[in-house]
Specification:
Elements lengths: L3 E2 L14 H10 L4 E9 L10 H17 L5 E9 L5 H10 L4 E5 L2 E2 L2 E2 L11 H18 L5 E2 L22 H13 L3 E5 L1 H4 L9 H9 L5 E4 L12 H10 L4 E6 L2 E6 L3
Helix pairs in contact: 4-5
């Protein structure tokens, strides 16, 4: 069983009502060794997703306090999930340098100001056009941005696709996905196996196993596992399946982080 959940949210994120203590206590009850809190900071939205400088400071302070409070029971990592797009690097770099983070996840949640969750992005476009647009934006983002350690939930666009069949087939986007993965590897960044696809009924991880395999074939080594949960009951959700994906993709290790430095750790049998 994988003992590290590296992608979770609390009520310091706009879309969670879970307390820090409630999440940490659940992680302890599951026997996790390390637990990362990675609340959202989205830079381009004109609404509650943007966290003020005071809000960021309060969030980090809460994580650091919990880290000390539970130090004898679990290792808590102070993290963040940046919602990135190509013009966000300056803002992201400023925050990443201002705080003592253990891990920074960089994710794409929107394209040109339109969140995947809302129908506007899908109007007048085919499924292929929407998915291709997502990967094009992801490529532009990873080229332009450096202030992250792990690329979050690659192929996440599938979760909120507004089509009768929203299945994303890796083979249809192999060339551009390869380019994204090559940039990630060249920059010494990593990817995550995000198990939220099981919680949302997709029946697989983000990214799907074929993309994880390709990352490994191209020489990728840095890889974490996270539930992306916003509530205690889904911490470490479907981690047995994440373990299967790691092994199928050819990994015999998982990556832990400390002070934003990756630590390759052998998988436990």
């Amino acid at each position: 069983m994988i003992k590290f959940d590296y992608h979770t949210h609390t009520n310091h994120s706009f879309d969670s009502s879970a307390t820090v203590d409630g999440m940490v206590q659940r992680a302890i009850s599951l026997g996790l060794e390390e637990y990362a809190i990675t609340d959202h900071i989205d830079f381009t939205w004109p609404d509650c997703r943007i966290i003020s400088p005071h809000g960021i400071a309060a969030n980090v302070k809460a994580m650091q306090a919990a880290k000390e409070r539970y130090a004898d029971q679990i290792k808590i990592l102070v993290g963040v999930e940046f919602g990135l797009r190509p013009d966000c690097e300056e803002a992201a770099a400023k925050i990443a340098k201002a705080y003592d983070f253990d891990i920074v996840i960089g994710s794409m949640h929107e394209i040109n100001g339109s969140d995947f969750y809302y129908p506007e992005l899908h109007k007048g476009r085919t499924k292929h056009e929407v998915f291709q647009l997502y990967f094009e934006n992801a490529l532009e983002t990873v080229i332009a941005c450096d202030s992250f350690d792990i690329l979050g939930h690659l192929d996440y666009v599938e979760r909120y696709a507004r089509f009768p069949d929203k299945t994303l087939h890796h083979a249809d986007y192999r060339e551009i996905v390869d380019e994204i993965l090559k940039v990630i590897i060249r920059k010494d960044k990593g990817i995550e196996i995000n198990t939220s696809g099981f919680a949302y009924g997709l029946g697989r991880t983000h990214p799907q196993v074929g993309i994880v395999k390709r990352y490994r074939e191209l020489g990728g080594e840095i890889i974490t596992v996270g539930s992306d949960t916003h509530k205690p009951e889904n911490i470490a959700h479907s981690f047995d399946k994440a373990y299967e994906v790691l092994k199928e993709a050819g990994f015999n290790h998982i990556t832990r982080f400390c002070k934003r430095k990756p630590i390759l750790t052998p998988l436990k049998k």
